[in-house]
Amino acid sequence: MLKIRLRRMGSRHRPFYRVVVADSRKVPTAAAIDEIGVYNPIETPILVRIDTAKVEHWVARGAQVSPTVLQLLAVNGATAAPAAVTPAAATPAAAPAAEPVAEAGA
User: Fold this and answer.
1) pLDDT tens column, 56-95
2) Could you state, in order of their start, the residue ranges of all structural domains in the chain?
3) Which of 17, 31, 59, 82 is 20 to 30 Å apart from 74, CA to CA?
4) Is 50 helix (H, G, I), strand (E, B) or coil?
């Protein structure tokens, strides 16, 4: 299964992240299939650059987007993530309203 996730780069106390498409069954440091963006939290202002066309391309081919990358897509300026990009776990299911429980003794 393909995942769009962050890969940590940089030195200690100086993180730098690449947004990559990688096989989820392999270790995070394994070779990535495609590099689609960067995220640098140290820089002022914070650098977030993600190619949304590539994200849509990989999602159409079955890649799943990690929750952190979804947040970065929102920061990147994507007005609304397409329905195909939003994972099912990120959208809350409508829970039925809980019925009041009668107390035992009343």
Assistant:
1) 999 999 999 999 999 999 887 654 455 555 554 444 444 4
2) 2-82
3) 31
4) strand
